Every structure is written in C-alpha cells, then in structure tokens.
C-alpha cells in the first residue's frame, strides 16, 4: 500500500489576502476575456518557455521537462521554483507590471482573481478535451464560463477511520449515509473506545473545506450559474450546517482547535476514531505508528446513500496574457496534461493526476488506498472560480466557528454568510 508523505497542498488553501492588480500595467476589474483562444498549430514547440512552479513541483519539474525538450528539440524549458508563501504576490505583481514568464502553476482558488484581472490567457480551442478531466477539477479553471487553464494535479478529502476500533464497535464497513456517519461516530466513541468518534474542524482557517462538502451533497450551489451572485442562504445550506453542528453539540467531535500534530497522534492513540482529510495524511498517521492494517479510508457518505461530494483542490496550469511565447507555452501545458505524462509525474512526485485515464495502469490502478481517492474524485466540487472566493471563505470559516461553539444559530450564521458575501460580491 502506498504511503503518502507529501505535505498539504498550499496552493489550494492558502488564505492570502487578495492583492489589487494595479500599477503601470493591468487593473483589477472586468478584463477577463469571455471566449476561448484561437486553436494552436500542431507543430513542435520552439524557443524558451519560462515556467513558475511552487512547492515540490517547482523543485522537480525542471528535470522532468527534459522529456518534453527531447520531443521538441528547438524548445527549452526554464523552471523557476517559487515558494508558495510568496507565490500569490509574485504572480500579482508580475501581471500588474506586464513582466511575466510564460506558464505558471496557479492554486485553484486563485484562478478567478487572476483571470478576471486580465492576466491569464484563455485556453485555446481544442487544446484538450474537458471530458478527459475530473469534472470538479475542470470547474476550477472556468471563470464566467471561459476556461483559463488546465488542471495539473488534484487532491480530495475522504474519511479516515480506525478499522480496529470500528470492528470493536460492530462496523465491518464504512458508513454510506449521513445518518450512518453520525451513528458510526457515536459507536466509535461509545463502543470502540475512542474519546471522540470523529474530529471535524470547529471553524478556523480552511474549515469550509470540510463543512461545504456536506452542503454540496445536499445540493447547495455557492453562486448562481453565471457566478455573478452568491447563493448561500438556502434551506439546503441550513440543513448541512445543522448536521455538521450536531457532531459538536453531541460531544462527538471536540469544539476546540487542535495543535499541530495533535490529530495524527490522537488518531494513533485512539483519541480520535475518525477524521476527514486528504491523501497526505496517510503518511502522517503512519509516521505516528498507525499500522496500515489498523486504519482505512473511504469515500465521504452522501446524504441519503448516494455518493458523497468532496472538495477538490490542487493546482492548475495557466499561460500569462503577456507571455512572449504563447503557442509553445500551451504546447508544454498540453504535454503535461497527457495521461502518460501525468502518470509519469505521479511516479516522480506523488501528485494525483487530474486525468482519470492516468489512473488505469500501474500503482494508481492497483493500490486499494489510491483507488479510494480516485473513486472520490469522481464526485467532487471546486469552490467557485470567482475573484472574491477566498474573502468569502473567511466569512464561512468564521460563521462555522460561531455555530459549532454555540455562539449563534445555524439560521443566523447562514444569513450572515449571505449578507457579507452579497456585500463583497463575486467580482464578476
């Protein structure tokens, strides 16, 4: 069984403040193209292709891209590794000044902001087929109905649980419905010996990534169809937040924020019987001494027994509007999106491919744990690709915390989410 040792994908969740894209170059409003770009030719790439990539991707992509240069001998790929902590500001300043490289990795929650600024080139027609990608991942590239990039790698969240404690509690399979998840958590606590049946974020930065999947499973759309208005105040959102709140009201999940490393050590010693997280946590819990036979992962349960919806994050590849080598830049993006290339990059780096076809052979097809993540990726939703999402996400985090701690009612929390979101606007 594969052990994931990668850290969390900072690009998908960084809560950096949005920066106004102003200076001698572009401004911040209403500059996004509304149509896809013209198709590129089918010739070889040429010239220098300057690329910014973050995290491990930035460290590894330069050597990996040598295969692209072999196929395109007149092209040279130059990769600059950019720390995630400074990536947002670096991209924003480059767009504002008009001094950009050709290709960049973009955290999925940044696509709306940078596309709307006019800084990203719309995806050329027929460069790739959207149907070749996980639907949720593809949605992260679309701003106002136009795609501005290609999903490169993905991550999603599943249910982790102590299999040995579940067996002790009388469960030989993971829960399939919301009601079963609640009972499963109660039984892990009352019969399995866990201090808490489940650990869910009680608010704080990024808690929306765990709470909103329940809302999506209930049928919530965060915005209207064209992304011009937030639509948070709905009966379905109230239902989802009420269900989420119930785990804290009933003492099944702790209401305090955990310290770094506490979840992993608590999962190992039986304090927490289950939790929801991404693929990096397999390595983290095993490092704490949890044997691979002692825990399992499972897709999130749906409200009434259908597939549960999860959050999808990761990274997209985009070409800057001010690129000096757009055609070759898109050819490089196209190469990175090819299933064989995606599988090869997984083998080198551990990134989960955004293309389902890349999961059909090798370790991705054979490892049972990986297959759970692949199954979950079929039913995922990306947050709306609108410029203001991270600002609104902060509001959701705050209201979730007030709710789980009993400082406000679910109805008032949802109404306040909507009030502030409407005041902020989508930026489109």
List keywords for this structure.
428 residues, alpha/beta, D-Maltodextrin-Binding Protein, domain 2, 2 domains, 7-stranded mixed sheet, 3-stranded antiparallel sheet, 18 helices, 40% helix, globular
Can you characterise this structure?
It is built from 18 helices and 12 strands. The chain has 428 residues and is α/β, with parallel strands linked by helices. The protein has 2 domains: 217 residues, Periplasmic binding protein-like II (D-Maltodextrin-Binding Protein, domain 2, 3-Layer(aba) Sandwich), CATH 3.40.190.10; 190 residues, 3-Layer(aba) Sandwich (D-Maltodextrin-Binding Protein, domain 2), CATH 3.40.190.10. Strands 1, 2, 3, 6, 10, 11 and 12 form a 7-stranded mixed sheet that branches. Helix 9 packs across helix 10, helix 11 packs across helix 12 and helix 17 runs antiparallel to helix 18. The chain is globular. The N terminus is likely disordered.
